[in-house]
Design a protein that fits this description.
With 106 residues, the chain is mainly α. The protein contains six helices and no strands. The protein has one domain: Serine Threonine Protein Phosphatase 5, Tetratricopeptide repeat (Alpha Horseshoe), CATH 1.25.40.10. Helix 1 runs antiparallel to helix 2, helix 4 runs parallel beside helix 6 and helix 5 packs antiparallel against helix 6.
């Protein structure tokens, strides 16, 4: 059983685990399946908005998929707001830097 299948199996026992959904998203990214990765990140975004590490990766996957700029902008802003709310300066700085780089490159 590969890692992706192991995580899917674990999710059957812990379907509300943001950590497992995040791990599954990362596995999908390794397979270049950004659409499935985004679905997993969106699950976290819907159920656990304060899982701030997800926003950076969701935005990156959305950029990889050439998603709508308004969507990407919203992901960055939402992540920055939650990082500030939680006092997570590291996550805030990473999101702000990635956001600024994306704006420059687009």
């Amino acid at each position: 059983m590969n890692r992706k299948d192991q995580i899917i199996s674990m999710l059957k026992d812990e379907p509300t685990s943001s950590f497992l959904h995040f791990a599954l998203a990362k596995e999908y990214e390794k397979l270049n399946d950004f659409e499935e990765a985004i679905k997993e990140y969106e699950w976290i975004r819907t159920h656990d908005q304060e899982y701030v590490g997800m926003y950076y990766h969701l935005a990156a996957a959305a950029i990889e998929m050439d998603k709508d700029e308004a969507y990407i902008e919203a992901v960055f802003k939402e992540g920055e707001a939650y990082a500030q709310k939680l006092g997570d300066q590291h996550a805030f700085a990473e999101l702000q830097n990635a956001h600024m780089n994306w704006e420059i490159e687009r």
